[in-house]
Amino acid sequence: MTIFQEVIERPRGYKPPAPDFNTEHMKVFLAYLEETEVQIKFRALMRQLFSLPMLPYNPYPGFALRFSGLEERWARNTKFS
Q: Nearest to residue 66, comparing CAs of 44, 35, 33?
């Protein structure tokens, strides 16, 4: 077997999260969503987007620009244990 024929073991299959999503990472993520009101702001942005007479070709750069500061602001105000 040459170096190019070596078999790489990879985990197979999807591992779903815990059934109740009650993990430490999920708690931090849900706290982020609540404190930054990302869902509320995203809905408002979608309403604004769909009220335009013509949709932009690619709305994602605008989304990224409008939401880029939320994580930074939240991380500065959050104390991690």
A: 44
Average pLDDT across each block of 10 residues of the chain; the chain has 81 residues. List them in order: 64 69 80 84 90 91 83 70 46
For residues 32 and 71, is the Cβ–Cβ distance under 8 A?
yes
And the tokens for 64?
């990224």
DSSP states of 14-75: --PPPTT--SHHHHHHHHHHHHHTHHHHHHHHHHHHHTSSS--S--HHHHHHHHHHHHHHHH
Domain edges within the chain: 33-74
pLDDT of 38: 84
CA distance 68 to 8: 37
